[in-house]
Structures are given as C-alpha cells and as structure tokens.
Description:
The radius of gyration is 16 Å and the shape is globular. The two termini are 21 Å apart. Strand 2, helix 4 and strand 3 (108-111) form a beta-alpha-beta unit. It is of the alpha/beta class. It has helices spanning 2-15, 21-34, 56-70, 90-100, 117-130, 142-154, 168-174, 193-201; strands at residues 41-45, 77-80, 108-111, 136-140, 159-163. 39% of the residues are buried.
Amino acid sequence: MRLSFYLLIIIITFITSSCGLINHAANNTGKDYLINAPYDAIIVPGLPFSEGKVNTILKARILWAKWLFERKVAKNIIFSGSAVHSPYVEAKAMKIMADSLGIPSNHTFMETRAEHGTENIDFGIQLAHQLGFKKVAIATDPFQSLFLKKFTQKSKYNVALIPFPLQLIRVYHKQKIPGINSTEAFVKDFVPLEKRDVAQKE
Length: 202
C-alpha cells in the first residue's frame, strides 16, 4: 500500500508545478528549521527496497541526507525502517547505499523496528537519545513531511522537519546510486506487513 502511494506521488510530482501549495508549504518548513542547524542527527524514514531498482523517493531521501551531512547541517544520520513490504530491512539497505555514496559509516546508524512514519520518529528519536544526540530533525520528502507535521507538533518530542525542495525530485531521479550488495539487508522467510495483519486477525 505504501509503495503504491509513493509511486502515485512520483507521477503527481512530475505534472505539478513548483509553485504548488505542497512545495510552498514544505519549503517554508524546511527553511525555518535550516536556520537552526546544525543538528546532532537527522532521521531518514525508509521505503521498501527492491533488488536492482531503487525507488526514486527512497533515493531522493538518501541523497538529501548526504547533502545535509556534507554541508554540516547534520552531524550524523539515522536510517529508520524495518522489512515492511519487501524482504529487505529498509534501514540496512539505506545504510549500505549511504556507504556506497561515501558517507562515513561512523556517522550513519540504523533503527530497524519502525513499520510506518510515526514509528520512524518514535524509534528514531529513542535511538538518537541512546546515542547521546539531543538536537534531532527528520529529513524526508515534502509529501511525508507534511503528513508528519501534525504528529510532530502534538508529540512529546522537540523535532524539526527538513524536507527537500520539490524541484529536486527531477534531479534525484536522474542520479544513480552505485550498485550494492544488499545481502545483509535481506530477511529470509519474510512475511509482508499486510499479510501479518491478516494472520493476527484470524
């Protein structure tokens, strides 16, 4: 379900102008929090990973995190996500890709329990605090950022949202991530979340 949603979002992105309400709201949110940089860590929520082809939004989130790290907006990166809709632990797959892009591995961490956006925040911040990181932000796409905004405002956490500008999706779509060995992220005998939910109800 979540993968289909983001595929739909990609299509919408290419046919909407950069003047759209989503872009305007997300950019304003990001600019506000960039003023307060640097952050001890940014949390990057995952998306389903498939061997041989990287989802554009997933790739964009990783490249955005790399940009923020290299410009010292963030000192560390926490990739968050379990194996939810594909047999790959999202956080592990993202860290492997981050390693392939040259992000120092001692500055990247994995949170592997989260199964949806709000858990990315809950579990990601818990890990950040365990690691001694106090000032934390969520680095993601503008769509998820707006979806999570109300949750972050109502939550007990003091966390910023830093979405990438909508215009960058076209740039990130064309960029390539080096081939990786995703074996370590693979989960044997994997059961998708939707089937787990059905089994629990029976």
